[in-house]
Protein 1
Amino acid sequence: MKLVIHGKNIEITDAIREYVHQKIEKAVSHFQNITNQVDVHLSVARNPRISTKQAAEVTIYANGSVIRAEESSESLYASIDLVADKIARQLRKYKEKRQDHKTQPISTNEVVAPETVAADLIGDRTAELPQEVVRTKYFSMPPMTLAEAQEQLQLVGHDFYMFHNAESGEINVIYERNHGGYGVIQPRNNGNGNGKNGKSAHVGVAEKSRV
């Protein structure tokens, strides 16, 4: 298992490196057969108004899936403890889901129901981009089903997840809706307002899966 430690606004001392290895390796020790690489990002916020400025983020690459956890506190060592516990729970949940999938496959037909989206999403507002790109991420995008993308969204802990739809061949985004359930954003072909499969671009609403 490969473990890589990155630091932002912080020097990674030997003591910090040893503590990360001790805590993170212990957290993933029972899951090394499914863990390929572990990336640890430690950072300190420069904004004095942020009290929980010491952050620890762990990203695990496991058999084509990405599992992520992040915690922050007033102490870097406390943040490492918290994120180690959290990533261990995430790995346990991931392993249980994989075992469930072997005995009870997910039916993708019940995951999403279509809902039409307005053609103009921003109205009279002017689209604005952030003045500065503060972080760039690269990740592999193997084709996956909608159900697999929904599971991946839960594992990475983000509000949205971009994926390569195995059925349509398009890049889609699945996201968690504020009022519950999930939505899916699909591309629309130029000119005709239709997607690749002939359906209008839409947001799908789904009940949260229990698997």
Note: Residues 76-103 form the longest helix (28 residues).
Protein 2
Amino acid sequence: MNHAFAFFVSFYSGVLELCGLFLVPVLTRLKASANWNIFDRLSLPPSTQAMRGAFQSVAWVHAASLGESKLLVKFIAVLKRRYPAQGYVLTATTRAGVDYLRTISDDSVIAIGFLPFDTLRLMDAMTGHFSISRLWLMETELWPSLILTCMRKNIPIGMVNARMEKKSFDSFKRVGFIFKPIFAYLDIVLAQSAAYALRFERLGTRRSAMRVIGNLKNAVTVARPPHGEKAALREALGIAPEDFVVTAGCVHEGEGRILRNMLDKLNNGGGMSVRYIVVPRYLRETPSIAGELGAPTAIIRRMEAHGPWETCLVDKVGVLEDLYKICDAAFVGGTFVSVGGHNVWDAAQFGVPVFFGPDFHTQQESCEQLIEAGVGFTAATAEELAGLIATVLKSDTSGFAGALSAFIQSANARRDEIGRMLP
């Protein structure tokens, strides 16, 4: 083992322990410990079930924030198909990430919680208590004490959806004599691109360990939600089985007027009767988006409705996927303003046509993939958007059904291909 790396990590771990010893009491008196979840990070994640003897092995999968936690859940689905007798410990760095992971209901998940502070003491306790046999890190979550602990215990480490930006690459390169052992120890790196893979290789990762899989957010299991689940969600919102529903997710201020014009075109000139669910990207924009949508717009703050509505605005976080599940078509916001779009796969995974405006520069690859497959559609105006929705779901239903069938086969084949790459 590289002595410079071991010395650095021991020093770094000791500094963290001292900081905890002196700062935690101060932060507790300042009542900052709850906001930062300090005591959660000073202990191990709570177990969700008894684990001993229940699984052949236990893998630890760690993500940083909410976005990586969503990818973690997709990766768990791949792992479960490959290793059906394996249990999982899931951690995240941020509160939003942990809160999302805690919504998972899965018998193979042993524990969920915050990543403990990166000290050698806590990482040794973590890997020992849960009998960790493998560690998976999402994107670029390289924690020195965690990695040194795995090296000492011969626990293999893989990187998932790995990326290495130029700035990070240059920083690691400057101190390569210390951090090279980290990259040399990785036994598999599932990289987002060939450029990222090359940077990992230049930092010391073996070429034989590199796999280029593209962005994991594009590797989804595409399927309509179970009928009973969809029916229950629709019933709670007062939506009848025969109602046609469009869910607009991640909507920004400035897009409400366009959506209102589109809805009017569909209901008045498109020969369709549509119910419209709008979910703001930011709750602080709810009042302005409601004003843009105009009356009558119902504001719903729980997943239930207490009266009839044609257009509703959902003023609640964490429910977007459920609202995509119950729709017949989805619109992804941030595309009629200069934001550049949001994750179209959140909707596409449920087998519905996905519509978006002309500005999707932050989601270019994903949107083009959906367009090419015939399950995604872009429009420049409200009128064009209304026409596309009417065409896809009224005039050309068989055309979309055929495209969706091919898309499902392709998406699931890609997921299985990633599974075959795993060690």
Note: Residues 28 and 34 are 8 Å apart (CA to CA).
Protein 3
Amino acid sequence: MTIQEKLSLIQQEFKAKKSRFNSFGKYNFRSAEDILEALKPINEKYKVYFVIEERISEIAGIPIIHSVATMHDGDLSISATAIVGVDLNQKGMQVPQQFGSASSYGKKYALGNLLLIDDTADADATSNGTTNTGKIKLVKDSDNWSRAVEYIKAGGEVSKIITKYEVSVTDRAQLKNYELERNNK
């Protein structure tokens, strides 16, 4: 089996539980450690191993951590990268904690990119806060969702909602249906 075939199978069957809870945002999430723990049986099953390497650079005075997750199969490897800025102004954290937090975040997203971990099951997508795109996630059954539906029914456009909010493909289709229903009346 080729390394590409192995990675494809791993991406299809990989699951990592969300064992952590964010009490501020009130959501469960998976950590880099959860992902690494879930990879251990995969290593044995497919005779591969995973490594994460990091390097630090600076862009416009902001420390940047480049995390590279690599799956190795003998002499062959496949990698994915995540780039994370270190927030040195984060209150309540010492500098080592700020770098450690960014490092964990980078590892998690590099592994997520390599393993195609679905964002919809991740804290950034299930919280009602902003996502890594900087947009607010529009979540069904939230106050924002109700306002978006009212806006569309009153003549608003889905395209304008999408510029302000991050909207899943499924939810976007439902909003479009509200727009079509309004236009067909």
Note: The first strand starts at residue 20 and ends at 22.
Protein 4
Amino acid sequence: MNQLLPRSLKALAAAMQHPLYVVGGSVRDYLAGCFSASADWDICSPAAETEVERAAAVCGMRVTSVYRNTGTVKLTDEEGTGFEFTRFRSDKYVRGLHTPAEIEFTEDMVRDARRRDFCANAVYYEIGADAFRDPLGGIPDIRNRCLRTVAPAEKVFGEDGLRLARLARLAAETGFSPDEECLAGATRNCALIRDIAPERVYAELDRLLRADRKAGGAQGPYRGLCILRATGVLRELLPELAAGDGMAQRADFHAYDVLEHSFKCVYYAPLSVRWAALLHDVGKPFCFLRDGNFHAHPEEGARLAADILARLKAPRKSAERVVRLVALHMRDFDLRMKESKVRRDILRYADLLDDLFALRQADYSACKDDLSPAPGVVKWRAVLAAMRTEGVPFTLKELAVSGDDLAAFGLSGKRIGEALEDLLFYCAQDGSRNTRAALLKHLEHIYKENV
């Protein structure tokens, strides 16, 4: 592992009196054979923060922040690589609170390891000695691809509810499996996830949905979601979605219940639409319990998705896009929409088209694991191709007339914007209409009585 360490980190270790260790995900991933150059560098030592600060000054690293109550020092080197140092310590928690109630610094590696979450994350690499230290048997766990808690699972999850989400996310990213005690402890403590700040929960779920970029592979996000379901954490976080567990759908269209279909949709969806894939049918349980059918689920789903993402304090722009996709995912599902209306919709939702097509394909594939092109996507892509061939303008800037032309025609203020939009939709039906003469003639026809 020594060859993979940044030179600055080796220099920092050499400048310190106490041994310096790398710990956590970078060590785990190295031993698992999936080390990434973008690894997070978590380092630790019995040394006090002042020793780290002095050593950093010697080797040209910059201290960006110091938290003396937790023994934490954040550093960056000249190349911008970040490191987070934490002094060996033992933590005591009040049940359910994410922040330790009491911290005691120690020189005992075993006590430091016991404050962590899983044994696979509690293997230490001593930089100066070029040797691994494994106080809790984490190396065999890594070889066996196992997630085992550093102490009784009841204690580990009872201390910090965020570990419930981390369990699912780490299983998704690594492909490791929780052992029976780990799963049982998470299940018994699942309600503690409610005590965690929504931003922290959203960050864990977002990483879980992107886990296929890690060693867990393509099955990663699906695997993580299944663990959230199995432990009951999903029911605590997203009860609207979890209500679809076991809720049957029409067998001629679906092989899975509502919740499993949503998980499958995530599996088939590209990265850009994972949240929309997860929430696209969140309206189905609500509609079925209210109406006995799923008819209004896109509209109700968009409302519920907005509520969920607001509750999780998701980034506003991302949330708005997810809500729009959920609302539109069933558009023209029966292929009965006239081409003229499809053309208008293609213009209206032009900024969403790539993601909407991706979501609809994932939704189609998730019904019965069918990878063939979704008929609705095929239809809309054909119409889109025809529009492009015709030279249909997709933005107001592409129109052959401008706001100045409309002002000269006699329109003003808000009516200019409305007229330009009317002309854009007029051109949607036939790209050859996008000439100055044709548009002004059409303008005269529709506005002659109102100018």
Note: Residues 353-368 form the longest helix (16 residues).
